[in-house]
Amino acid sequence: IIMHQVHYQNFETHESIVLNFVVNAGTPGDKIAGIRWMELRRSGDTDWEIYQEGTYAPDDGLHRFMGSIASDRKGNIALAYAVSGDEINPGLRFTGRNEGDPLGEMTMDEGVIVDGSSAVLGDRYGDYAQMTIDPINNRTFWFTGEYMRFAGNWGTRITSFEFFKDSIDLAPSLLNTPVSSAELSEEEEVTISIKNYGLSTEDIYNIGYVFEGGT
Hints:
Helix content is 0%, strand content 44%. The chain is mainly beta. A hairpin with a 6-residue loop joins strand 3 and strand 4 (49-56).
């Protein structure tokens, strides 16, 4: 079941939709709730296609569920969700990725919105959660969700945050050659474009690569 809600952005060069739902990120006998997220894209009159997808489920034994996702005007994606475990009361956390990061990965360290203070005493939890983008600046993420306060009482937490550039952030931006073809040889020259996504000017740097396990 797709969680609330699906978000749409038009970047002029392409359209984008982000969505998420809960999956079992563990084994059939050791179920761990994780969040499967996707970005769909299309350009012009083409059909929608999955541009990237991934499962966010760090290997720490915690359940992550009730996710909510959105993207900002630059294509950065934020994901917030409920979290709980054997020794963790239900609280709220978030992660995200910058446009240009490796596809299918939430690259930002997990942040805590609010820790839970008690267990769920009833049989119902988390009626709502929503991530949305500020309509004024199309940059600020707003999230609201449910968490457990004291003595089995639930509470609502509303938070906002923005993604800022790192000081140093060099990354590949384009594979120039080879161009996909049925006639490629085993000795094609590989050329890429590198873009500085960071705030600092970089004059001296090293570039490396890994292909099929070797450099």
